[in-house]
What does this fold into?
Amino acid sequence: DTGVSQDPRHKITKRGQNVTFRCDPISEHNRLYWYRQTLGQGPEFLTYFQNEAQLEKSRLLSDRFSAERPKGSFSTLEIQRTEQGDSAMYLCASSLSGGRSYTFGSGTRLTVV
Amino acid sequence: QQQVKQSPQSLIVQKGGISIINCAYENTAFDYFPWYQQFPGKGPALLIAIRPDVSEKKEGRFTISFNKSAKQFSLHIMDSQPGDSATYFCAAVTSNFGNEKLTFGTGTRLTIIP
It folds into this structure.
């Protein structure tokens, strides 16, 4: 296991299209997080899963965003009807329960044109 | 609402010098303070972290100083090297039903010049 994997690394899409990103966490990590990072800013929390349960969602996560983690393994983040303001780096991180050490993936850079 | 304020935005230090990055927080519920290092095209990587019951923590060339009463903490990089050139983020963690949520500062772009 080489860490947290995210796919794709880059995505360019036209405004109004739907996009889906995938995150494969470290296999023994039961917690999974999605963060969004815009240019020149720190990552901002979007949502959190413990196993397959989505336990918290940020107010940043509008109705156009949905995340899933079927069977508590990989996770997907879907953005419907993309807008230019959605352009950002989407980061996934995983950790163990009780641990405070996150491992981040390299992110998916989304550009909405 | 920016709960963790970080300064400076950018920093240039000569090789061998000391790099200092400062952060301040408002929420007293924060109980863990990590620093992350991020290289272009990569996700943040944990560098060093401190709990509020400790005033200083050192790991190699990296030291965190923590002032609980002032609600401030800082990262010192001793003997700075060109390989330290990266963006550094301070962060703070609160626990909410198991969600160890990170709140990040805005980042400091550090450049070490020869």
